Amino acid sequence: MAAAKIRLSPRIRLRFGARQSSAAFNSDFPFCSRPSGRPQPDTCHLQPPSINNIVIAIDGTSASGKSTNAKLVAGALDYVYVDTGAMYRTLAWHCLQKRLDVHDAKAVAAACRKWKTRLECVESGGLRAVHLLVEGYYPEREIRTAETSAAVPHVAAVPKVREWMVRRQRECTQFGNLVMEGRDIGTNVFPETDFKFYLDAQLEERSRRRAADGIQENLAARDLRDSQRAVAPLMVPLGARVINNSQMTAEQTSGLILQEVRSRLSRPAQ
User: pLDDT at position 222, please?
Assistant: First the structure.
């Protein structure tokens, strides 16, 4: 299905544009350049800035299927996929590389302020996705290690880090229509979007999924940390459709999301 455009209300347009104006067009932030020295996936074409790009926000608890379903939806609609959790993981990895104490909020905030990064949109396997590169490098494997995973909650809880991440995540609209997944997309990053979904599943089912991936994680403790975080805590966004997929496949879950998105896009613009 070809991507459709919708016109946002004046209120939304003003809020959207104001948040983009700070750094989205900075010439020191080359979005689509190709790192040298090793083969890379094809880069996406940078689109002209648009305040009418669509953002589908998919939030939810750990192991609720956010990544899998966001990729399926992005692929079906030919939208750009954005994994915001990977961005926080990249900063956690960077702090570990610099031997910083991730429990030291001031040190983490300083590292976030000083590190040299850029956003890049790449296409691989028919899916376009945004990566956050550090000095031209995307640590795809390193950010999935147990050490990095343990550091992420501490890094993500730093207010200045979340402010920085929100700015970068909003800049991703430079690449076109988005399917963005995380824990605060519909509440904090793009609260103005009309397309909000919140995924959840029973704790036992989410633990089973994690174990099937070879990961042992205390999801109850993670849920508690995420929901009680002082800045941008995990919660159901206002107006979001909640989907409990405990007894559903990824195809069924993504099918519900696609059905609703396509239904809304087919309606005449107000």
Answer: 87
Q: Domain for residue 7, yes or no?
A: no
Look at residue 216 in the predicted model and tell me its pLDDT.
80
Please report whether residue 93 resides in a domain: yes
The number of distinct structural domains making up the chain is 1
User: Is 215 exposed, middle or buried, given 0-12, 13-18 or 19+ CB atoms closer than 10 A?
Assistant: middle
**CATH code for position 155:** 3.40.50.300
Cβ atoms of 178 and 121 within 8 Å: the answer is no
Query: Which two three-digit tokens encode residue 113?
Result: 């302020």
Residue ranges of the chain with pLDDT lower than 70? 1-51, 270
- Model-wide pTM > 0.85: no
Distances in Å between the Cα of 205 and the Cα atoms of 54, 62, 65, 135, 201 are: 32, 11, 11, 39, 6
Tens-place pLDDT, residues 4-19: 443 443 333 323 333 3
- Three-state secondary structure along the chain? CCCCCCCCCHHHHHHHHHHHCCCCCCCCCCCCCCCCCCCCCEECCCCCCCCCCCEEEEEECCCCCHHHHHHHHHHHHCCEEEEHHHHHHHHHHHHHHCCCCCCCHHHHHHHHHHCCEEEEEEEECCEEEEEEEECCECCCCHHHCHHHHHHHHHHHCCHHHHHHHHHHHHHHHHHCCEEEEECCHHHHHCCCCCEEEEEECCHHHHHHHHHHCCCCCCHHHHHHHHHHCCCCCCCCCCCCEEEECCCCCHHHHHHHHHHHHHHHHCCCCC
